[in-house]
Amino acid sequence: MISASTLVRFSGSTPRPAAADVAVTRLRLFDTSVWMAYRRDDVEWARRAQVGLGAVLAWDLLDLLMALPEGFPVPLRSLPRSHKRRLYRAPGGVATITADTVTRHIVPPVTPLLAVVTATDLHDGLVRASRFAAYCSRMTLVPSVPGNRHEELAMADLYGIGVAVVDQRPARVLVEPESLTDWQPTTAWWRFTETIYRQATGKLGV
């Protein structure tokens, strides 16, 4: 369980960062509009700006990069020929390739923290917030307490989705969002971070 107030504060139906190291941006992900609270990797953002590297969205490339350690040379002879061909086609700034080694430089540009879905209907908000279950904590923001309050809030609690209502100022948190448990980085998660980066910066992906 996490406290939503450590990540976001609500100005009406608009979440704002509650900490200096948290950013909140409205994005379009999984066919839904969402306010995403995330932590930037400022070093990686600066590095990408310096080398002109935008978001990297290619599944096959990210899958390959997942297997390479960041910052440590890997002998090219240890990689299959298909992997080497893919690395040679990677955009500049992803890795450095010498005659003998490849060194990965790219890292996920953000850490997703909380997805906040605004909805007029709590059930609809819970359904859409559940799409982010594999990537970060989730919350739905509704204008008022639903008529079937106990049933809907019990469902939210069961699935670990936070609920806040904006019938007062500040918004009232009725259910705190659940933290991710047993989380492991995956290619899909890395691509999710790249999608956030692309939309937050307006830079096209490759």
List keywords for this structure.
single chain; 6 helices; 11 strands; 206 residues; elongated; alpha+beta
Description:
By secondary structure, the chain is α+β, with helices and mostly antiparallel strands. Helices cover 29% and strands 28% of the residues. The chain is built from six helices and eleven strands. The chain has a six-stranded mixed beta sheet with strand order 3-4-8-9-10-11. Helix 2 (59-66) crosses helix 6 (187-201). The two termini are 36 Å apart. The relative contact order is 0.20.
Topology, pairings included?
Layout: E1 8-11, E2 14-17, E3 23-29, E4 32-40, H1 42-51, H2 59-66, E5 74-75, H3 81-88, E6 95-97, E7 101-104, E8 110-118, H4 122-129, E9 137-142, H5 149-159, E10 161-165, E11 172-175, H6 187-201
Parallel strand pairs: 8-9, 9-10
Antiparallel strand pairs: 1-2, 3-4, 4-8, 5-7, 6-7, 10-11
Helix pairs in contact: 2-6
Summarize the structure.
By secondary structure, this protein is of the alpha+beta class.
Low-confidence regions:
none
Q: How much helix is in the residues?
A: 25-40%
Q: What string gives the helices and strands in order? A: EEEEHHEHEEEHEHEEH
Number of self-contained structural domains: 2
Oligomer: single chain
